Protein: Chromosome partitioning protein ParA
Organism: Paenibacillus albiflavus
Amino acid sequence: MNQIAFWGNVHGQVGSTSNVIAAATMIGIEYATRILVGQTQWSLSTLESAYSVFSAGEERNAYFTNAGIDALDRLARSNRLLPEMISDYTIPIINERLDLLMGTSKPTELLYDNMKDNITSIFSCAGQYYDAVLLDTHSGNRNSLTGALLETSDVIVVNLCQNMTLLERFFSKQDWPEALNKKPYMIVLGQYDPNSKYTAVNIARRFDYKDPIYTIPYCTDYKDACNDKRVLEFFIRQRNINRKHENYFFIQEIRRFIKALMSKVGNDMDAKVMDRRAS
């Protein structure tokens, strides 16, 4: 039980990609577990640029020749893909902890959609090697690949925001993937503003939602780190900040979320914590 799909009901407002970057990086830093993070968008994703993997488009294009989802697709089509091979086609972000699987270089979205069956099998195969596989999926309900990946995932992270219109659409099941009727899921509010009257507690009360609602607060320094392609360095610097630091709430909320997330997929969090954090 280790494939985790991050899904949002609308593109560009709920912070799905930002949330998966934060979660994957913090898990990689703080837990003795090996995870794979990848995205299933056709176009270039923020996920791929956040870690300063490439300094130029030319290098990125050269990479696709021998690695990434396209290379694994070729192996899957020829029935040569094995779980232990997958890491050879990824980029290590944190050695032996966090690997990044780059997305497709297919010239058209139609060609990428034709990979749907192989992509689901690739990530299922990856789950036999990695302790957890975190996927940034396309938002909404109209993407067939997203639907397939939600169906094969063990846990779905539903990314929402404090926009009441979008919240009402989700909780009224207007924006509701079929997979949520049969898969365990968690709700996280991205770009969270704790000073809004629409707090996580008030949202849960408004929609009579009984399970915890997690948050990943808006953080200017984190957004800058994503733009500067220095996400890993940012989280390493922030991990031991004290209560007086302006980013303390941001870091603690991510920790609360990933602890619940990893428990949901069956990992013993107490055994996997690497260091005691400063309080």
